[in-house]
Structure to design on (55 residues):
């Protein structure tokens, strides 16, 4: 078996395709989760100043 044909068969195999899809979903999930954390952090950085009593 030639080396090139081994890699082609590996890429075509079902478990390898499943692994690639699973890895892509995990990476997208992590990227979305990190993006949401940044948005929440930016919202938490807003300061609230209480109005003075009597005004």
């Amino acid at each position: 078996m030639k080396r090139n044909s081994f890699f082609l068969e590996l890429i075509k195999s079902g478990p390898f395709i499943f692994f690639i899809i699973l890895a892509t979903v995990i990476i997208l999930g992590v990227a979305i989760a990190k993006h949401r954390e940044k948005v929440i952090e930016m919202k938490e950085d807003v300061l609230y100043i209480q109005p003075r009593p009597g005004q």
